[in-house]
């Protein structure tokens, strides 16, 4: 079992600005107010190496909002162990992880708007990130 799958079983994610896929692919990300999507994808990294160095550097995640998807599954957003953290995720119909994005300084995400295949997540501090729910590596802006 991959490290990320093991963490997700306990609803935990590494404490790092990152995009995680269930297959183990992980990327650094950054909030980016100059981007229409509100964030950007940076370089890939090895989450197993990170956890080998800092095995306890994880945060519990708790959902505050969800939107059921017509094709099954759910979009989920919420908070981490610390008040400044927030996450957004897409889960499969069995609630297993498809992808998750963790932000260390966004505050919890409490609102989701779905526009076809694009989701806009808004945090309690007003940060908005938009995501192509099928491929979050290609963030886009909501036009509607």
List keywords for this structure.
3-stranded antiparallel β-sheet, mainly beta, 144 residues, 7-stranded antiparallel β-sheet
The spatial strand order of the largest sheet comes to 4-3-2-9-8-7-6
Gross morphology: globular
Rg, Cα atoms, Å: 14 Å
The main sheet comes to:
7 strands, antiparallel
Secondary-structure element string: HEEEEHEEEEEEEE
Q: Please, how many helices? A: 2
Q: What percent of the residues sit in helical stretches (DSSP H or I)? A: under 10%
- Distance between termini? 40 Å
What's the structural domain tally? 1
- Average pLDDT works out at 93
* Strand segment count: 12
* Structural class based on helices, strands and sheet pairing: mainly beta
Percentage beta strand: over 45%
Q: Which stretches of 5+ consecutive residues score pLDDT under 50? A: none
Detailed description of the structure:
- The chain has 144 residues and is mainly β.
- It has one domain (3-132).
- 10% of the residues lie in helices and 46% in strands.
- It has 2 helices and 12 strands, in the order H-E-E-E-E-H-E-E-E-E-E-E-E-E.
- It has helices spanning 3-9, 47-53, and strands spanning 12-14, 18-21, 26-31, 39-44, 58-60, 62-68, 74-79, 86-91, 97-103, 109-115, 118-123, 128-132.
- The strands form 3 sheets. It has a 7-stranded antiparallel sheet with strand order 4-3-2-9-8-7-6, with helices on one face. Strands 10-11-12 form a 3-stranded antiparallel sheet, with no helix packed on it.
- The N and C termini lie far apart (40 Å).
């Amino acid at each position: 079992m991959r490290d990320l799958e093991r963490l997700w079983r306990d609803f935990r994610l590494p404490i790092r600005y990152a995009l995680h896929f269930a297959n183990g692919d992980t990327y650094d990300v950054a909030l980016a107010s100059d981007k229409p999507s509100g964030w950007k994808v940076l370089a890939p990294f090895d989450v197993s190496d990170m956890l080998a160095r800092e095995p306890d550097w994880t945060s519990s995640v708790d959902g505050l909002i969800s939107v059921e998807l017509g094709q099954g599954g759910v979009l989920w957003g919420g908070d981490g162990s610390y008040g400044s953290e927030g996450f957004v995720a897409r889960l499969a119909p069995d609630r297993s992880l498809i992808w998750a994005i963790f932000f260390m300084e966004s505050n919890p995400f409490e609102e989701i708007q779905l526009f076809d295949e694009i989701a806009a997540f808004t945090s309690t501090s007003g940060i908005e990130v938009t995501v192509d729910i099928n491929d979050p590596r290609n963030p886009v802006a909501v036009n509607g």
